[in-house]
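dumping this here before i forget
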Amino acid sequence: VISIWDYIGKLNNSVVSTYPLSFEKLYHPFGFVLYKATVQFRPTDPAVLTVKNIADRGYVYVNKVLQGVLSREQKVESIPVQVLKGQEIEILVENQGRVCTGQNDQKGIFQNVTLGSKVLQNWTMIPIPLDPKSIQKIESSTEETDSVSAPSFYTGEFQVPSSVKILDTFLKVDGWHKGVAFLNQFNLGRYWPIVGPQLTLYAPSVLFQNSSTVNRITLLELENSPCNNENNCIVQFVDTPIVDGPTPEY
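structure:
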């Protein structure tokens, strides 16, 4: 396990701007960007943090303590936060993808962020790379521990006996909440089983290594992992896809 905060601390690609910049202006078309700013005034308690038109989902932290979630899909643009002067507001923004039609679908934060009636300025933005080389570095940095909570990268290893014929399969992540899955540094896709309806991710046979070669499965879990109990800190590969799971009632 390695927390996303520790991973971000190893990066040297931060961008500083008076106001937030979109993913596009950061030349980061996919994935995640961390936006952070220090509160330079004495806010009310609580104070309402507002991020208009966030694209697409933002996890709001104060000094790395989760305060709530902003959502373009659910039209949640404001949340109350408890923050003091000198503390840092961090917003981990997820680009949830684009439809195949439409124009000007910017991602990230591209309007002023307000805390109460004041505009937050002097932002640091850190694009978070999730390409194969970056995932390989993450996997080499993970440590066995039970004291790290989400958002974190969780890596497990397994071997496939040489006598076993490798077939296409499907990754099932019961107990995990929301995130991105990687098999041998290949991005299998996003999982979000509590929302559904897709409960498995396709894992083609060509991604697996057999014999003495170690296979690695890595999950970037954004919200809640089942790993407070090591017996539940598991994933499964199953032979049948599940794409008709339950969905929320709106």
